[in-house]
Amino acid sequence: MPSVRARHLKTNLEALDRLPEREAVRRLLAEQLLRGIAQAHGFDWLPIAWDVAIVRAVHAALGPEAQDAFARSLLLESFDGPLLGSLVRTAVNLFGLDADRWVRWIPKGWALVFRDCGSWTIEAARVGEIRLRLDGLPRVCLEDLLWPRSVASSLSALQVRVGVPGETVLEAADVARRVATFMVRWEPPQAP
Predict the structure, then answer these.
(1) Which residues are registered as beta bridge partners of 181?
(2) HSE (CB half, 13 Å, CA atoms) of 106?
(3) Where does 3-186 sit in CATH, by number?
(4) pLDDT in tens, 29-72
C-alpha cells in the first residue's frame, strides 16, 4: 500500500499548529486522519492519501504561494529531524554543500519517507540542472497537480540548504502513466 511515514505527517501538523491559520486548515481535514496521525508512532506507515489531503487543505486555506513556502520550510525542518537528519549529516560529511550531489541523493531521502510511492531516475543532467523523473506514483498523488507541485516546492529546500540560488519546478505529470518530471536548477559556483 502506498504509504508515508507518520513522522512526516506529524511534522506537517506540528508546523500547521504554529500558523495563525491552523484552525482553517484543520477544519478541512477529516477527524479520522487527525486522530490516526496523533495515535501513530513516528516510524509507522500511514496512507499516502493522508499526505495528499494535508497538501490540499493547506493549499485551500493558505493559497498557492503560502503552500509552496510551507512545503519548502517543512523539508528544511526535516533536514535536522529524525527521518532525514542522519542522511543530511552524512551528505554534508561526504560531499559538503555540492548541489549536484545533493540532488542525486533525492531517492535515498524519498525512500526514508515514502513507501510504494514511485522511484526516481535522472533523465538528463548538465552543469546547474538535473531533470528528475518519478515513476510509479499512486493515482491519488496525481488526481490534481497540487501534490506533485508540493513535491517540487519541497525539493526547493535543497538549494536553500546548500546555499545556492535556484528552483525546482514540476515540468509535467501524467496520471495515466503515473509519472511526474521535475527540473532542479541552481546557480553553479563560480571558479575563482
Answers:
(1) 133, 172
(2) 26
(3) 3.90.1520.10
(4) 999 999 999 999 999 999 999 999 999 999 999 999 999 999 99
Cell of 173: 505529470
pTM across the whole model? 0.91
Please give the pLDDT value at position 191: 61
Output the average pLDDT for the chain: 92
Domains of the chain by residue range: 3-186
Rounded to 5°, the CA angle 50-74-166 comes to 120
What is the per-residue pLDDT for 168? Answer: 95
Cell of 16: 500547521
